[in-house]
Amino acid sequence: LANFRHVDEDFFDDLEDMLIESDVGYDMAMKLSDELREEVKLENAKSKQEASNVIIEKMVDLYDAAGKDEKADLNMAATGPTVIMFVGVNGAGKTTTIGKMAALFKKQGKKVLLAAADTFRAGATEQLVVWAKRDGVDIVTGPENGDPAAVVFDAVQKAKKEDYDILFVDTAGRLQNKVNLMKELAKMKRILTREIPDAPHEVLLVLDATTGQNALNQAKLFKQSTDVTGIVLTKLDGTARGGIVLAIRNELHLPVKYVGLGEHVDDLQKFDASDFVYGLFK
Amino acid sequence: GLTERLQKAMEKLRRKPKVTEADLRETMREIRLALLEADVNFAVVKDFVKKVREQAAGAEVLKGLNPAQQIVKIVNVQLTELMGEEAVPLNKAAHIPTVIMMVGLQGAGKTTTAGKLALRLKNENHARPLFIAADVYRPAAITQLQQVAAQIDVPVFEKGTDEDPVEIVRQGMEVAKQNHNDYVIIDTAGRLQIDEQLMDELANIKELVHPDEILLVIDAMTGQNAVNTAQGFDDKLDITGVVLTKLDGDTRGGAAMSIRAVTGKPIKFVGEGEKMEDLDVFHPDRMASRILG
Ligand SMILES: Nc1nc2c(ncn2[C@@H]2O[C@H](COP(=O)(O)OP(=O)(O)OP(=O)(O)O)[C@@H](O)[C@H]2O)c(=O)[nH]1
Ligand SMILES: Nc1nc2c(ncn2[C@@H]2O[C@H](COP(=O)(O)OP(=O)(O)OP(=O)(O)O)[C@@H](O)[C@H]2O)c(=O)[nH]1
Ligand SMILES: [Mg+2]
Ligand SMILES: [Mg+2]
To answer: Is the pLDDT of residue A2 over 50?
Structure first.
């Protein structure tokens, strides 16, 4: 038991440091450390290895418990085209994620349409056009600096008229504190809903795994203006761990649905809580 | 932010006849929390708080001479010093062209910042810069740079995406020589600091052209990982400066402190928007108060 006590104090200090280092955040790290301390005691884990296993299991349980029954999978339309809107701050990986997802659904035999509704950034439309060509899917574009809402409208019309199974809407990156840009996003969402009552069936917040505590405010404000339904956590192939999604899960009940693991078309995987938790400790 | 946190912690201290070790510990804890909240790396926070504590203990704090104000002042002074100097200029070559190389993780803002720097050089130095499009990987990266360049009327040397980036840079430098461009700005592809092959590519470009400036472009909202990124790029390339982007957001920007602490390299510029005009020189005092909140 004396041995366990030693694993206990240093072990839990190291654990807290590791969690903080993974961008879990101080409050969440302390909360987890307290819960895990209890769990390790309950399970009577005596070695570091046993304690680690208990901790990983418990954290996966906590992640699941922080949910409110949201779909872990993408929400698909009962009939007609499924519309998925991608939002997030500049450079997070929205356009690339659409490129990956389009290929994924095309492989499943779905008829996929892309909407290049970033009409603002240099080379944005061209970037998505390259992906469309690579994936062999169709794309709706608009004039440079044109109204992004018009591209959204045109794309939805085409999706309905030509029986597409799925429509991915790419939007321009924007920082959550830019009120007028957030309003623009809300307007684009309203157009989707007006044209297809249940649309968008999914609003995915694309979040860069290197982001720190600011990600929580990102999630809050994007959820406020577009009712985000899930997260895609990108760049997990790097050294960042994306721990902030635990706080986002805890406070906003948003599930991570997919993770980005690189820049190529196949570098997208469904989120797995155990893999993720395990990654926090690597 | 820190000031409010410390005021609260200090309220209790003020009513006491003198500040005890426990009070000091509590104050240091508040400082630690404020910095972690601001995304400063936890190891950097530990070192920083240790230094502050030494100063606070050494000062008259323990004798109860308005401890709150003293400690806040110590923190502010320490942090502003750590942040480095204001408006450190770009290095300039003895003979034209001055070569600037943009490096960093994917999506940090390299291509956009390259444009901003070129515009600044044109406006302030009447420069005639040339871009070299060395990102052959990202879809339409060259198109993006060309559109940025068109906005500010700057030429781009590109060789499409089938050529090796080192070779593109070599040929671009020839063109710069012929056209007597006084500045060359090399836009490189985003990459992970753990990608050995791609980091070697950057080292090869460096070896070929000996840049006067290697700027690490970092997103201001980066969390704890900032130290890994900064260390990785600095160890491999011996960077000469840092540009912190997207400071027009509401992030506290603690990554700035982490990067300074770990590399000692100057933060030269900050990006404050998506337009070509949205670049400012670095102000350490503003950054310090932003981090402290
Ligand atoms: N390593 C890695 N890079 C990624 C991943 N996802 C995207 N990227 C890269 O991140 C950079 C930015 O990706 P984009 O898709 O342009 O990001 P975005 O959110 O559309 O950017 P804006 O439209 O400018 O806001 C590109 O270099 C991508 O290749 C990922 O999962 N891993
Ligand atoms: N709000 C804001 N956006 C910025 C700033 N700097 C760059 N951006 C945006 O961030 C996104 C990424 O910028 P890029 O210049 O493409 O980044 P990059 O580092 O070249 O990306 P890769 O080449 O894919 O690695 C774009 O949407 C830019 O408009 C800034 O200071 N503020
Ligand atoms: Mg994009
Ligand atoms: Mg770029």
So the answer is: no
Distance, CA A275 to ligand 2 centroid (Å)? 30
In this structure, the residues whose C-beta lies within 6 A of any atom of ligand 1 are: A 88, 90-96, 118, 121, 124, 172-173, 206, 234-235, 237-238, 260-263, 267; B 106-107, 138, 190, 192
**Regarding beta strands A268-270 and A256-260, do their DSSP bridges make them parallel or antiparallel, or are they unpaired?**
antiparallel
CA distance B153 to B277: 14
Please provide the size of chain A in residues: 282
* pLDDT one-digit tens code per residue, A218-272: 999 999 999 999 999 999 999 999 999 999 999 999 999 999 999 999 999 999 9
CA distances from B26 to A66, A148, A161, B23, B72 (A): 31, 52, 65, 5, 14
Query: What does the block give as tokens for A130?
Result: 């390259």
Tokens coding A143: 């004039």
Specify the DSSP class assigned to residue B191. Answer: -
Residue ranges for chain B with pLDDT beneath 70 = 1, 10, 12-19, 59-66
Closest CA to B30 of B68, B79, B61: B68
Residues of chain A found within 8 Å of residue B42, distances taken between Cβ atoms = 17, 20-21
Q: Which two tokens stand for residue A117?
A: 């509704």
Q: Over the stretch B196-230, which tens digit does the pLDDT of each residue have?
A: 999 999 999 999 999 999 999 999 999 999 999 99
Helix, strand, coil abundance in chain A, percent, nearest 5: 50, 15, 35
Task: Identify the pLDDT of residue B56.
Answer: 82
> Is the Cα torsion angle B93, B146, B112, A145 positive or negative in sign?
positive
Q: How far apart are alpha carbons A216 and A25 in whole angstroms?
A: 10
Q: Is the peptide bond before B97 cis (omega within 30 degrees of 0)?
A: yes
Phi, psi values for residue B128, rounded to 5°: -120, 80
Q: Are A144 and A119 in contact (CB under 8 A)?
A: yes
Alpha-carbon span B218 to B227, nearest angstrom: 11
- Candidate from A124, A127, A239 with C-beta closest to B225: A239
How far apart are the C-alpha atoms of A54 and A36, rounded to whole Å?
A: 8
> Alpha-carbon Rg of chain B, whole angstroms?
22
